[in-house]
Write a structure and sequence with these properties.
The chain is built from six helices and nine strands; from the N terminus they run E-E-H-H-E-E-H-E-E-E-H-E-H-E-H. It has about 270 residues and is an alpha+beta fold. The longest helix is centred in the first third of the chain and has 19 residues.
């Protein structure tokens, strides 16, 4: 792959990962306060039909912070390329900085000087190779007609941290998405590299295993989700120009492909790439 940050001028491959996120516990996706008098104090975010949705930006943010923490904690040699920058560090501080983050020099930036996370998920200089769609609730035609909205209302109280009891009469209601709800998941990747795909798969593995929770109130046990991958479409520019549908992977073939991504990441971490 070209080392230029303007890496998207040449299409090599595109991937579309499809699957579902399944809530194992209740999920809190806040939308701010409600303007309705009879609504919960803290409603969940909903689509135009009233069903809850999980914004792609929220999913990307949770996955990015997970991958950044793992890479930072591993403390691998910088020569492997598996390192991450400090996004809060000032641009004029070279130690821990990520590549060349000067705004006016995007066209000439060498992407190999950027950390692995920025190369995969982007920064204010380098565009993200991964795009997350908003995850909408999977609703069957029968359920959609019945307008069954999988949302619960729960009680919350303010706690006095010193006395460890309710603080005054500060009580509120908040909405959560019920356990067992399925959200349709789509992730698109442009010009993927196997070892960077390994980081992406590793991040989703941490979500699936429960180490990373989604949404709010996670310290109360909310936000545990399962990740079920159903398929992956790989398509090249030649496929598009010649009218071919590309390569579709499912089942065992899909898991083998994910294993190859994890292996490519492990080999690079060992310095064998």
């Amino acid at each position: 792959m070209s080392s230029s940050a303007a890496d998207f001028h040449r299409l090599q491959q595109r991937l579309r990962l499809s699957g579902q996120l399944v809530t194992r516990t209740a999920l809190r996706i806040g939308s701010g306060g409600s303007g309705q008098l009879d609504a919960a104090d803290l409603p969940v975010l909903r689509d135009a039909e009233g069903y809850p949705l999980l914004p792609g930006g929220s999913l990307k943010g949770a996955l990015r912070s997970t991958v950044e923490a793992l890479v930072r904690g591993a403390e691998l040699p910088r020569e492997t390329g598996i390192w991450t920058c400090d996004p809060l560090r000032k641009r004029d501080e070279s130690e821990g900085a990520c590549g060349d983050h000067r705004e006016g020099e995007r066209a000439g930036v060498d992407v190999t000087r950027h950390c692995a996370v920025c190369r995969l998920l982007g920064s204010h200089v380098v565009a993200s190779h991964v795009r997350f769609s908003d995850a909408l609730v999977h609703v069957s035609p029968d359920d959609r007609g019945a307008r069954r909205i999988p949302v619960e209302v729960r009680d919350g109280v303010a706690i006095d941290r010193d006395l460890r009891r309710q603080y005054g009469k500060n009580k509120y209601d908040f909405e959560v998405v019920s356990p067992g709800v399925r959200f349709n998941l789509e992730v698109f990747v442009e010009n993927p590299q196997p070892w960077l795909m390994g980081l992406l798969v590793l991040g989703f593995d941490q979500i699936k295993e429960g180490f990373t929770a989604l949404g709010g109130f996670t310290s109360r046990g909310l936000g545990r989700v399962d990740v079920e991958w159903h398929g992956m479409l790989r398509i090249t520019a030649r496929d598009l120009l010649e009218g071919r549908p590309g390569e579709s992977l499912e089942g065992v073939a899909l898991e083998e492909e994910f294993t190859s991504f994890r292996t490519a990441l492990a080999e690079r971490a060992r310095g064998n790439a």
